[in-house]
Amino acid sequence: MQIYSRLEVAGNQVGMVRTSKQHFDDRGRITQASDDPVAPFAQVLFSAVENVNQLQQNADELEEKMAVSPEEVDVHEVMIASEKARLGITFMKTIVEKAIRAYNDLVTMR
Amino acid sequence: MGMFSVLNISGSGLTAQRLRLDVIANNIANATSTRTTEGGPFQRSRVVLRPINDRLTFKSHLLPDALEPGVGEGVRVLKIEKDEKPPRMVYDPTHPDAIKSGKWKGYVMYPNVNIVEEMVDMISANRSYEANVTMINSARQMFEKALSLGK
């Protein structure tokens, strides 16, 4: 069974097949968000992680650009992007540690 | 305000000062260019900066002066304009660009670039860059201090 889509290969980015019944729904697209303004906590957490990942990717992209065509990008832009990525990771790590500590507090309750 | 608003604002400041430094370097490099494609000597260029967002924002309908300026989002380059000061006249009849006839016969038009002025501008751009970098470091330290709250 093929898990990646031949139509969505761009460079080193490979799109996954989204039309299998094991995936979201067999219409091949992600279900729309409802009008309910309250998002489940897991979704908020995942979108925060996604944002952190996006920061990492921005920093990587700028570093690549710096190596390939140094004329087009300033040093401070690269530094700021990598600093943003680092701060995002630190922030996420802190939040995760706090969550785990809270969970442990609950588990070890007697 | 986003998590990294300070980084974005100061980053725009850093970019603007880098451009100022480039323009100053070009002025100094062309301080003796007597010919340009437009004719006449080189003219000193200046960078004109303006805020990215200085529009008034609506604060509250209970305030008589409900429109107030927001925090702003940094600086952007409006344009690079030419300085219209008259050129420096230097007497040098053997120069190929010397004026052939008239009142200024034998004079050469040199660019209106004053090296001392450019040096002062250069130091100013340098110091502004440093100030923006200091701002970024301070914001970073604040962020890390905030993270150490939960320790």
Protein model, in words:
Chain A is mainly α. In chain A, 55% of the residues lie in helices and 10% in strands. Chain A has a two-stranded antiparallel ribbon. In chain A, helix 1 (41-68) runs antiparallel to helix 2 (75-107). Chain A is extended. In chain B, 38% of the residues lie in helices and 19% in strands. In chain B, strand 2 and strand 3 (67-69) form a beta hairpin. In chain B, helix 1 (5-29) packs antiparallel against helix 2 (115-147). Chain B contains two helices and six strands. The mean pLDDT of chain B is 89. The interface between A and B is medium-sized, with 12 and 15 residues.
Low-confidence parts of chain B: none
Number of helices of chain A: 2
Task: Provide the spatial order of strands within the biggest beta sheet of chain A.
Answer: 1-2
What gap, in angstroms, lies between the N and C termini of chain B?
Answer: 25 Å
Class by helix and strand content of chain B?
A: alpha+beta
Mean residue pLDDT of chain A: 81
How many β strands of chain B by DSSP? 6
Strand percentage of chain A: 5-15%
The description of the largest β-sheet of chain B is: 2 strands, antiparallel
Helix share of residues of chain B? 25-40%
Rounded to an integer, what's the Rg of chain A over CA atoms?
20 Å
Beta-strand share of residues of chain B? 15-25%
What spatial form of chain B do the alpha-carbon principal axes imply?
elongated
Runs of chain A in which pLDDT lies below 50 for 5 or more consecutive residues are none
Coarse morphology of chain A? extended
Number of E-type strands of chain A: 2
